[in-house]
């Protein structure tokens, strides 16, 4: 596969998504080449971890040439870095690039030769991870529902409607919309699909599966090195190099961006009526039982494609 040949557009974006920091015009910072990799996830589904593994695989080992957010930017977001600077950093990279978006797949074109890798996670794990994420931010809106007591916060997360003017709004409907418009729509026939619970079950197999999904021929030594470097403790210890906007003071603690790398965070923390409300709402949003079950639990494997 050519690594510097421009990737033709097969189909245009079907919808424009915006948000508090999501800026669709910033897609122009990335001119896709064949071989590039786009990580497409809802927030708090293992995005940074997935980007890091892929970036290391692309570069043939654990040593990255620059910090991850520079090497693998969130292309359609304004995080305070000028668009021209992001574009220049991407253009300067030789070979395959790895970039990220939180927009669903109908929010960007389909490009020939660009691998799209999507990762999902149990919605209740996402909820508790979002609460930790919000608590770690230095600046938070006074009315942010993720700062409320759990009992009130979970009801807002489950019940609040989606707003297409804020694609990264934190609620169950937005997560379900991302899944429906990326996975269930069939828009991307060659989508490479992963689930967080499958990934944490066996980290080395995850690295191998990501390499296979991206068509990267990585020898066992590289797989071992990437597995070791992307272990939770290793990434937490070098959080300033991996966390989005790490080292800028955006987070109270860059290390706490990497909170626990665990599943089933809701065990013992939600009342039965709260769980019932969640289950009822998820069934409304994703009526198909197998699709709903996969979103929650994965497949017991590393990819269902």
Question: How would you describe this structure to a colleague?
Answer:
The protein is of the alpha/beta class. It has one domain: 3-Layer(aba) Sandwich (Rossmann fold), CATH 3.40.50. It is built from 13 helices and 6 strands. The chain has helices at residues 47-58, 68-71, 83-92, 123-135, 150-159, 172-184, 196-201, 203-214, 220-229, 232-237, 239-242, 272-285, 289-297, and strands spanning 9-11, 37-40, 98-101, 110-111, 115-120, 192-195. Strands 3-2-5-6 form a 4-stranded parallel sheet, with helices on both faces. The chain has a two-stranded antiparallel sheet with strand order 1-4. Helix 1 crosses helix 8 (203-214), helix 5 packs parallel to helix 12 (272-285) and helix 8 crosses helix 9. It is globular and about 55 Å long.
Short note summarizing the structure:
This protein is α/β, with parallel strands linked by helices and 305 residues long. The chain is built from 13 helices and 6 strands.
Topology:
Blueprint: E1 9-11, E2 37-40, H1 47-58, H2 68-71, H3 83-92, E3 98-101, E4 110-111, E5 115-120, H4 123-135, H5 150-159, H6 172-184, E6 192-195, H7 196-201, H8 203-214, H9 220-229, H10 232-237, H11 239-242, H12 272-285, H13 289-297
Parallel strand pairs: 2-3, 2-5, 5-6
Antiparallel strand pairs: 1-4
Helix pairs in contact: 1-8, 5-12, 8-9
Number of domain units: 1
Structural Rg: 18 Å
Tell me roughly what share of residues is in helical segments. Answer: 40-55%
CATH level-two architecture: 3-Layer(aba) Sandwich
User: How large is the count of helical segments?
Assistant: 13
- What class would the helix/strand composition place it in? alpha/beta
The helix/strand order is EEHHHEEEHHHEHHHHHHH
Number of separate strands: 6
Question: Terminal Cα separation, in Å?
Answer: 21 Å
Give the amount of beta strand, in percent.
5-15%
Shape: globular
| Largest beta-sheet characterization | 4 strands, parallel
Reported by name, the CATH topology is Rossmann fold
CATH superfamily: P-loop containing nucleotide triphosphate hydrolases
Which strand order spans the largest sheet, edge to edge or round the barrel?
Answer: 3-2-5-6
Mean pLDDT: 88
Regions with pLDDT < 50 over 5+ consecutive residues? none
- State the name of the first-level CATH class: Alpha Beta
């Amino acid at each position: 596969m050519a690594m510097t040949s421009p990737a033709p557009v097969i189909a245009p974006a079907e919808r424009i998504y915006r948000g508090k920091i999501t800026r669709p015009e910033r897609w122009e910072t990335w001119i896709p080449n064949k071989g590039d990799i786009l990580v497409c996830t809802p927030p708090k589904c293992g995005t940074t971890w997935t980007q890091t593994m892929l970036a290391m695989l692309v570069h043939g080992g654990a040593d990255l040439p620059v910090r991850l957010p520079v090497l693998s930017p969130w292309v359609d977001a304004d995080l305070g870095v000028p668009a021209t600077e992001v574009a220049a950093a991407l253009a300067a990279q030789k070979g395959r690039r790895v970039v990220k978006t939180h927009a669903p797949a109908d929010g960007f074109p389909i490009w020939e030769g660009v691998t799209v890798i999507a990762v999902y996670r149990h919605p209740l794990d996402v909820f508790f991870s979002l609460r930790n994420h919000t608590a770690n931010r230095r600046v938070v809106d006074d009315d942010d529902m993720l700062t409320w007591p759990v009992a009130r916060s979970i009801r807002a997360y489950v019940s609040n409607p989606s707003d297409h003017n804020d694609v990264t709004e934190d609620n169950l409907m937005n997560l379900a919309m991302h899944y429906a418009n990326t996975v269930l729509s069939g828009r991307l026939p060659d989508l490479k699909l992963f689930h967080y619970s499958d990934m944490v079950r066996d980290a080395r197999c995850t690295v191998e599966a990501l390499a296979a999904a991206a068509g990267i021929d990585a020898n066992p030594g590289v797989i071992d090195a990437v597995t070791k470097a992307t272990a939770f403790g290793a990434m937490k210890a070098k959080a300033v190099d991996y966390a989005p906007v790490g080292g800028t003071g955006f987070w109270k603690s860059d290390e706490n961006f990497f909170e626990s790398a665990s599943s089933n965070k809701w065990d013992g923390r939600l009342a039965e009526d709260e769980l019932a409300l969640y289950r009822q709402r998820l069934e409304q949003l994703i009526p198909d039982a197998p699709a709903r079950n996969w979103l929650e639990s994965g497949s017991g494997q590393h990819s269902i494609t």
